[in-house]
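Input record (one chain):
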Amino acid sequence: MNRITLIFLSLFYLSFNTISQPTYTPTEENLQNRQWFQDAKFGMFIHWGIYSVLGQEEWVMENSRMDKKTYEKVASFFNPVAFNPSEWVQIAKSAGMKYITITSKHHDGFAMFDSKLTDWDIVDRSPYKRDVLKLLAEECKKEGIKLFFYYSQLDWYQNDYYPRGNTGHNAGRPDEGEWNKYLDFMNGQLSELLTNYGEIGGIWFDGWWDKKQADWQLEKTYKTIHDLQPACLIGSNHHQAPKPGEDFQMYEKDLPGHNTTGFSGEASVGNLPLETCETMNNHWGFALQDNRYKSVNDLVAYLVKAAGYNSNFLLNIGPMPNGQIQTEFADTLKSIGQWMGKYGETIYGTRGGPVPPQTWGVTTQKDKKIYVHILKWQSESFSLPPLPGKVKGIINFHNKDKIAYQVTKHGIIMHLNGLNADEPDRILEITLL
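The corresponding structure, as predicted from the sequence alone:
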C-alpha cells in the first residue's frame, strides 16, 4: 500500500468518524446550570403514577403480565385528593433538598400531565382531572426549588413502540407499529414538558436499555430539548458511558464507578456532573407491604459518600395513591434535614476531596477547606496522606475544638480525642494556607 493511499484512507476515516460522532457544545447557561447542580448535592426523587393505586410498585403492569386494556381500568381509581404540592415542596426543603425530579411518564406510558398528544394522561383518564405537574411546577418556582422531569423512553402502552424491546410483550398490542412515529410522539411530549411548565432544571431519561440496538435518534431528541431550554440538563439512566448531548451522568442504586447492583456493568465514569439515586425502602413506586426502611444514619452515610465521590444524592419517595407522603418517609427526611442543618456546610458546594474514598469514609473540599468524613470509627489515632497544600489548622467540625496533629513526610497524623463515636459521621475540618 503506497503513501498516497494511506493518506486517502486516513482522511476518509477521519471524515467518517466526524460524521458518525455528533459533537455537542453546551451553552453558557447550561454550564452554569451544571455548576449549580454540582453545588446542590441533594435532591428528591418522586415515583408516582397510576401504578401507586395497586401498591405493588411501578413495574406492576409488566410483572403482573397485565394487558393494556385491563391496566386502563386502574386510571379510574387514581384520585389523589390529598395531593398538596406545597406540603411536598416543604418536606423536600426541610430535608435540605435543592431540587425535585418527578416521573412525568413511566414505563406504563401514562402521562402525569395534560398531554395533547394522547388521552392516556391524568387529566383525561383519571377522576382527578388536574395536571399535577403544573401544580408542582408552580410551587417549586415559588419556593426556589428546581424541577426536573423523569421521562421513560420505554413505553408499554403505545402501539408504535415497535419492534418490542426486552419488556412489554404481554400488553396486548398489535405486532406492528411505526418506530419513527413513536419517536415523534416522544419528542412531542418532551416539547410539551419544556414549553408549558416554566424553566425546567433537567430531563432524567430512563428505558433506553430496553432496546439498546434501536435507532433512538438521540441527537435529534437532545437537540429538541436544548433548543427549547438551553440550560436544561440531560441525563440518561442507560447504564453506559455518557453520550453526546448529555449533561450529567447518573448511577442507579450505586456510587459512581461501582456495580454492586449489576446495573452499571457497561458504565464508565465520564467527566460530567454525577448523581446517584437510591430508595428509602426497597421500591421506587408505592409498595404497600415494603417496610424495609433504611435508617436515618444509613441515608446520611449514603449522602456523605456520594459527596465524597463528587456526586449528588437523589433520594426517592413513592407517594401513596391519595397523594400523601407516608409518615415513615416524612419523618426520616425531617431527621436528615436536621443533620444537614448542622453539617450541610461540609456537603453543599463541595467537590470530591483530595483523598479518594476509603473504607473509613470520604473527603470533600470547598476552596481551602477539606472536610474529612469518618463514617467508620476505627481508632483515635488517624492519618492521611500528604495534602495539596500546607495545613493551617484542624478542628472537630462538631464542636470546633482543635485537633492535635503532626505533619510528616508520609502525611498527617491526628489524635482524635473527643469525637463522638455515636455520630453517623465524624467530621474534621482541615484548613489549608
